[in-house]
Write a structure and sequence with these properties.
The chain is of the alpha/beta class. It has a single domain, classed as Rossmann fold, CATH 3.40.50. Helices cover about 40% and strands about 15% of the residues. β1, α1 and β2 form a beta-alpha-beta unit. α6 runs parallel beside α8, α9 crosses α11 and α11 crosses α13. The radius of gyration is 20 Å and the shape is globular.
Length: about 375
């Protein structure tokens, strides 16, 4: 068994992972700043934090603070680095914050590994499918292609599907493989790409095995219902329970690969315990895309509440059209396969939401903030 440091270990994914690590006999230390955006205005009363409090060595600190990193690393054999700022839209105007936490925070960890005595023998890092940008498509004339970031002019014209970057023709989405090129379309995606490259370069030079997990859209019980910047399932749920209309961007046919948090935590535990995967980057998803319109309809049905669903034609710079993971590599090298189908996982999520207090709906406020900054567009 190992001593494991989990940064962000009081968060949505991190707390789930901590339970699995403890159940497997590992000794766990958590470094977390208990961000109010995740844990609410009174973080000490956060259910996520409460689920691990007293069961781990907990250090309330920040990954942007060298001293917090230094005291957290003492005696650790494995680092699982989950702590990050997430969310495409917010990243497009909180650039310094995202870069500081995601890039500088990782750089501090690596600087300590390079310059201080330690016992770390493995690094596991949480990345994102955002590093791919639009990802992988097939063109009838050109074969597999990786489209450019969609331009505002085309989005304004209601032309939402990517084009072939070679011939400009129509393309069909394909599950994106790990060997696809980095082509992030958002500041968030850029920070995750940089994070990956920092870890790959430094850990290789230091001889420290590492593995990168590129999570798809993670959802499930415990997800913040108060944060209007990440997680469309949470955003839509809060809208529905407040009796407010759902605003669907573009034409509603954009799709995402939703993977339950329990499956993500299980895959990450495998990365901690499995030998022979050094230097791997692995997609963690289901390999299935679900449209945003389908999500809205399913949630209304699960809650038994009909609210207006408006397909507005609005769009955000940095958003991508489709996200579907090729999961053959993670299946082959780890034997990982998601256990929960989306419909079953969504039902679990909705059942949990019904047990929670209805949160104040701050979605309109978040959209107005982005609109003021010129980060919202609309189809003509």
């Amino acid at each position: 068994m190992s001593t494991v440091l989990v940064t962000g270990g009081a968060g949505f994914i991190g707390s789930r992972l901590v339970h699995l690590l403890l159940g497997a006999g590992h000794s766990v230390t958590v470094l977390d700043n208990l961000s109010p955006q995740i844990h609410g205005p009174n973080p000490e009363h956060s259910p996520l934090y409460g689920s691990i409090r007293g069961r781990v060595k907990f250090i309330r600190g920040d990954v942007t603070n060298r001293e917090d990193w230094s005291r957290s690393l003492t005696g650790q054999e494995v680092i699982v680095h989950l702590a990050a700022e997430t969310g495409t839209g917010q990243s497009m105007y909180q650039i310094e914050r995202y870069s500081s936490v995601n890039v500088r925070g990782t750089a501090l960890m690596l600087d300590l590994l390079a310059n201080e005595k330690h016992s770390v023998r493995r690094v596991v890092i949480a990345s994102s499918r955002a590093v791919y940008g639009e990802g992988q498509y097939s063109c009838g004339a050109c074969g597999d292609v990786y489209p450019d970031t969609r331009r505002t002019q085309r989005l304004t014209a209601g032309e939402f599907e990517p084009q072939c970057p070679r011939c400009g023709g129509c393309v069909a989405v394909r599950p994106t493989v790990e060997s696809a090129p980095f082509r992030p379309a958002s500041i968030y995606g850029i920070t995750k790409q940089t994070q990956e490259q920092l870890v790959a370069s430094c850990c290789t030079a230091l001889g420290i095995p590492y593995v990168v997990f590129r999570y798809q859209n993670v959802y499930g019980p415990g997800q913040s219902l108060a944060n209007p910047y990440t997680g469309i399932l949470s955003v839509f749920s809060t809208r529905i329970l407040n009796g407010n209309a759902i605003d669907i961007y573009e034409d509603g046919e954009e799709s995402r690969d939703f993977v339950l948090v329990d499956d993500v935590a299980a895959a990450t535990l495998m990365g901690v315990e499995h030998n022979g995967i050094d230097g791997c980057a692995l997609n963690v998803g289901t390999g299935r895309g679900v449209t945003v319109r389908e999500v809205a309809d399913l949630l209304c049905k699960l809650y038994g509440i009909d609210v207006p669903i408006a397909v507005s034609g609005r769009f955000r710079p940095g958003d991508i059209r489709h996200a579907i993971a090729d999961t053959s590599k993670v299946s082959k090298v780890l034997g990982f396969k998601p256990q929960i189908a989306f419909e079953d996982g969504l039902a679990r999520f909705a059942s949990w939401v019904k047990t929670q207090s209805v949160e104040t709906d701050r979605y309109d406020e978040s959209v107005e903030e982005m609109d003021r900054r010129g980060l919202m567009g609309r189809k003509r």
